[in-house]
Design brief:
homotetramer, alpha/beta, 4 helices, globular
Chain lengths: 156, 156, 156, 156
């Protein structure tokens, strides 16, 4: 992730330990991202306390690469009045799948990844997700006590 | 509560200790009950495991008493394919407010009351509630460990 | 039709010649009536001029007869703030299908019947209908010039 | 209008006489265009016969000019599966308002202009429009008989 919006500096997951992290991948021309994923990410940001839950948007695309630029994403964030930090995913020299999407094994947009307070990935979802279910899962994760950080498969 | 649907026998809160209880009050001719409260109660019932969360519907009304009967409620439950246990609240000899509504200090319909695993009332809501927020609250309550039952203000 | 609401006196189609008539049949415990048919009837009433289009609601049921009464319908109309004239269809001694539903060959609720300015039935629909399409059909009918009344199949 | 999609050649209003024309202006990063205007234009296209009603989309913007390109619009049309002819409005050397928007005195997006069978502008709307109302207006216009073409204010 290189270009960021709604934040002074790039966010690193290692700096978010102790908080549940919601990583919401979207693409500005993807109907289900615009109709479901992005407004849900904003609702999650509005519903939970920043000290408990961090929401991070990730603009990512497998195709139409020539159509997207930081200018498009900047205008989109302005028009939709999005307030949560958003990164423009980096193209991947070796693959059509952008870097962060590949790292989290996302299959397309919208995608949602939940990372617990210890940095472990706990959920992957591709496509729209019910508000009730995702609310329940985030709510449950916020109640988990700090465990000893597991030795493996932590998410960076 | 006397007349019940979708259950073999009346439910008592004392029999539900260890589970989060969602008490959803509605009225079949109340637009916000039909448009928001009742479908949300069914979604909660469909989303959580019965061992974790019990959903109980309560048909209750302050007015139009002559319009309601067990036959109306029975037809409503059939037409809307509701699966969770539902009770017809009892009129109150001393007040226009039916008994269970008065006991839980509900102000009208739709109302939603959350009771934790120890039987304590943790939330009262009157009017529509966001799926995301109520999901988060129920999800958090399901993660609470069993505490020693507090000495006061327990919900029957 | 015998019991009427939102009108001083029973309406007869013969008194509505020169106007397009929208006959909207519903049942207060029918999910698609409440979610689609009834609010659409109110929108039609709000959108067109009364001199051009008359909206008439018809409460009708094939079943749950014991659940319905004029008191239920009165409370429903009050709660949903419906403004258009509504009749409670009459039971039929010889059939489970109430009289007006049978006369217009309605198959259930919600049903919508469009009658042109000359009293001819022009459309039957059973189930939800798109706003755009029904708007177009009503709009077209309002533009028809008065024809000589056809000799047959006029709607009473 | 110069760049066109979903049509073999540029459309001229003069070639559409005899049909009602719906001109729907939108912008791919405008929330109300994406949430209301564009899907409504597609519904209008799906509802009416092409011989009666022509739907033309116009991508137009007052700002974020650097964010838009034919590649963005092409990807958008593909992702949203839009089938009606769409033109990319031309920037205006003398004004921030693109040429077609200025010609039809549109105030922003979404905008909808109805042009009758004789080429006269009959309605301007800025912002979301009810399906029922726009359906009624289009339906009524399709019923108008061919009048003698008025001598003035025709829409090219």
């Amino acid at each position: 992730m290189q270009t960021w919006f709604n934040t002074d500096r790039p966010l690193l997951l290692s700096g978010l330990r102790g908080r549940v992290v919601v990583l919401a991948a979207f693409q500005v021309l993807c109907p289900q991202s615009i109709g479901a994923g992005v407004p849900q990410a904003q609702r999650i940001y509005d519903t939970f306390e920043p000290k408990d839950v961090a929401v991070i948007g990730l603009h990512a695309t497998f195709e139409h690469h020539d159509a997207f630029s930081a200018a498009v994403l900047k205008a989109f964030i302005h028009e939709y009045r999005l307030k949560f930090p958003i990164a423009l995913d980096q193209p991947n020299a070796a693959s059509p799948i952008p870097q962060t999407m590949e790292r989290y094994k996302m299959r397309g947009t919208p995608s949602l990844v939940l990372i617990d307070r210890n940095g472990l990935v706990r959920k992957h979802a591709f496509g729209p997700v019910d508000d009730l279910r995702i609310g329940a899962e985030i709510g449950a994760l916020t109640q988990e006590t700090d465990a000893v950080a597991p030795a493996q498969s932590s998410a960076a």
